[in-house]
Amino acid sequence: MAVWIQAQQLQGDALHQMQSLYGQHFPIEVRHYLSQWIEGQLWDAIDLENPQEEFKAKRLLDSLIQELQKKAEHQVGEDGFLLKIKLGHYASQLKSTYDRCPLELVRCIKHILYTEQRLVREANNSSSPLGGMIDSMSQKYQQINQAFEELRILTQDTENDLRKLQHNQEYFIIQYQESLRIQAQLSSLATLPPADRQLREPSLLSKRATVEAWLTREANTLQKYRLGLAEKHQKTLALLRKQQTVILDDELIQWKRRQQLAGNGGPPEGGLDILQSWCEKLAETIWQNRQQIRRAEHLRQQLPIPGPIEELLNDLNSTITDIISALVTSTFIIEKQPPQVLKTQTKFAATVRLLVGGKLNVHMNPPQVKATIISEQQAKALLKNENTRNDSSGEILNNNCVMEYHQTTGTLSAHFRNMSLKRIKRSDRRGAESVTEEKFTILFESQFSVGGNELVFQVKTLSLPVVVIVHGSQDNNATATVLWDNAFAEPGRVPFIVPDKVLWPQLCDALNMKYRAEVQSNRGLSEENLVFLAQKAFSSSSCNPEDYRSMTMTWSQFNRESLPGRNFTFWQWFDGVMELTKKHLKPHWNDGAILGFVNKQQAQDMLMSKPNGTFLLRFSDSEIGGITIAWVAENPNKTGERMVWNLMPYTTKDFSIRSLADRISDLNHLLFLYPDRPKDEVFSKYYTPPLSKAVDGYVKPQIKQVVPE
């Protein structure tokens, strides 16, 4: 539920707190009338500490003003007139307030949204009668941003401590030089006559004792400062690790999972802007702390004081290097995956991106990325860090690409636009495995340095599994392998292990997702459709969905073993239905005109209770990618008896000659689409218009479908 809807239901002190967020700097009316727009913007993607982000903030300010002006223009009536003037005034006011400092607008709105979310969450947690819970995504974003704020404060604190330490150490060194000067003066007294020596020596000795006592005390203080600073850095690094784990192991892994499901037709994985902004903040904070630790080490070398600090600083340096290495290697990702069914000798594309590239100035010396195709075994060896140098399972043309920095978006990426798989080297297959079950992956690798060759990184990332085909006829079996892998792969698996069997409801989710995406329809598979598929998959006659809830389907049942009495698998039949619907039946499926998933006996039972001429459309059981018309009519051999007739199934070949709607129009004995809709009411908008007059003296012939009496 939108935050603003819930915020308006706050009561008592929480309501007063919410109202106090607004004023001339940001009127509450703007929040009210643009609530949906405001909550839909990526405010968190803007780093307030980075002046270069100002152009993004300016874009948001301009958009906000445009939205306000649009809203004002649409106001009508007496009340609308006043509101129109008011909103127009607010648009001018916000422009004059924030035009020169758009980042302040972002800061203001972020503060408003976070506070509202907190107030709503607290009200929810105290079981007040608020409808619905605050969006968990907003909560997570808030936690991440709060942790960044804590890290910023800690880093600023250690920076202040470091400056203080440096100042104290410089003063210590001056005093130490003074003690050396006193010592030199004492030594030079030996050359003086005894009377002079006795005169000057006591004050120098007293001076030396005072300075040395001060130096001893101050050395202990400096050591305490150093240890205190190291402990603070330990705390910062622990929080950094935790924050990095949340961003890389939770958020980025979830993005990759969404990307994998998008390969099966799931919703788009979403942009990387927020993730990149978080990763850049991490990189900046890590780098600041790394520089601080190195400065602390420099101060220690400048003035060595015996104690545990040397070991502590070595540990801190090693930890921070590990943290930045993990960040850099994990944020080298594939933004646009190569096709997962890859045909040899066919052009394909992919995009890789380094989320921290801009922040770490990697683009100053643009790295080159190389793409190689490797087998499942080679991928396993690579992840175990076994030596697989120069191992590949084929040859990709145009497989090198330089990473480019895009100033406006702040992204560093390599776009492979014209790759082509020239040849593939297959491994020995196991048992019943076919070539369309063999998985490969594209390995992208690069090397670059950070901080003027201070740190050199070798980065690698693997694409989602790829099945290589050499002919279009292998496409449907290859797609089955990819579908199963995308749907049932577990995070962090050994490449590319998937379960051999899955629960039927899990498979239903995957099939439904794929079907909707392929047919590009909001009408997915209904529970009745899924029961029909279960009957087909398990050779069962039960119509109760509950009977299939705990049943499992193996990969062999899915796409190795043929269905009973057929020469094709369950997947091949289902894929045929999808292809036919996608190419020729999409509008009729969306209209609900095709029942489709009905067997012959069910069709007969349904039609026998209806008037003659009632028909339905169902997918053929005996043919891949076929649809048939079943209708009820008189039995010509027995007067007074009725029977259900079935037309020979139509396939893609038939529909490329004459469409389904025209074929239904041709058959005059088809009157009502099941249950009782006149056929013209359903199909007439798809009929081909009658031919116009003769052209140049020629009459164009017309094809019509006829069913023999």
Automatic annotation (TrEMBL):
Q: Single Gene Ontology BP term?
A: epithelium development
Decide whether keyword rRNA processing is in the record: no
GO molecular-function term, one example from the UniProt record: DNA-binding transcription factor activity
Q: Which UniProt keywords apply?
A: Activator, Coiled coil, Cytoplasm, DNA-binding, Nucleus, Phosphoprotein, SH2 domain, Transcription, Transcription regulation
Keyword Transcription applies: yes
Q: Its GO CC terms?
A: cytosol; nucleus
Membrane-traversing stretches: none
Gene3D superfamilies in UniProt: EF-hand, SH2 domain, STAT transcription factor, all-alpha domain, STAT transcription factor, DNA-binding domain, STAT transcription factor, N-terminal domain
Which intervals of the chain form a coiled coil?
134-168
Location(s) in or outside the cell = Cytoplasm; Nucleus
SMART domains recorded for this chain? SH2, STAT_int
The SH2 domain, residue ranges: 589-690
By sequence similarity, the record places it as follows: Belongs to the transcription factor STAT family.
**What is this protein's name?**
Signal transducer and activator of transcription
Q: Which organism is it from?
A: Astyanax mexicanus
Lineage of this protein's species?
Answer: Eukaryota, Metazoa, Chordata, Craniata, Vertebrata
